[in-house]
Amino acid sequence: MLRALRHDYEQHGVASYSHVGFAKMVNLFGPDANRFVLLDKDRIFSARKPWMLIMGRIFPNGLLLMDGQEHKTNRKIMHTAFTRPALRGYAERMNPMVAEGIASWDRDGSEVLAFHLLKQLTLGIAARVFVGAELGPETTRMNGAFEHLVAASMSQIRLPIPGLEFQRGLKARRFMVDYFRRMISDKRGGDSPDIFSRLTRTVTEDGERFEDQQIIDHMSFLMMAAHDTTTSTLSSMMYELAKHPEWQESVREECIAYGADELAFDDLDRFEITGRVMKETLRRYPPLPVIPRIAQEEVEFEGYRIPKGSMCVVSPIFTHYMSEWWTNPEDFDPDRFSQERAEDQRHSHSWIPFGGGPHMCIGLRFAETQVKLIMHHLTRRFRWSIAEGYEMPVQQAPISKPMDGLPIRLARVK
To answer: Is 342 contained in some domain?
Structure first.
């Protein structure tokens, strides 16, 4: 994908035109284009229309699939689940979950598939923190359901034909809808601190609250986004830290120096090295490599015409590798995010792994919390390595992940 985007940029400049079927497509390149499309000051671009084409039958009415006032209202209600006090509570609950989950990996000296271990761990966390559910047969079914949902969202044959991935995705959606619907009444009447419960009980100062179906749709999408994107980032971090053991040791030393088994939410910013490694990983492997919009009116960008109705795409992965903005962008170099260099501050939209503008990921602080907690527990318990010469094969769509599960070798820290 990156190679094709670079070719288009070199051939055509900041805008290139193509057709996908009967649809017009415009790729826009660079930080200025990202800011123009994502901030969308004149409300020209729709996020709902392209995402509905991609995943509308699988994840209808998720926050990502909304525009305008509907998006603003839903985001305002949902924000109550991601306030600082709420995040502090989630961190307290996650610490023992992470410690227990990573302890179960104890296969000293053996090779494991890191992606699958991380996915199981993050799904278990999501089940407890988001839903208040314990691991069990239904959670195992939930894991399979989300696999089918994500695969179906990118299916080329979108017909309910038995045996095909789109039909499996529709069946998985029915399972998730039934699962959440059965729980709503109890959640609304209780006082549980999980995200599901918070969404059932939240009423804004204007009296706005979610209807049952809105809660179901938001929970389906949030559960997918929460564990799939975090698993993507953690897998890529483990790969880079295996390739660069000096950075793995630096992260480990920082975590040991903290002097506590559990990482407190209010201390997250103290983990500067872990934070730089995370940011550099997100630069190199943004979970969503491209972000689509549809132009609802004709508009111009730097002299290029964007026709009404065209699919307009900006590319985090392309921008993150632009030598105009990043020093030696092919290198893994977390220090580019240090206060002294601050390469990500050269432009407001040169580093956009969480998107930008009104649709900036609402769960970005939750994701950071989860990544740092897992790395804190993981590095203090294990060292890990990859086979000599190994290069991780990356599937970039719909969400970046290792195609082979990322085989690594774990060794206990002595």
So the answer is: no
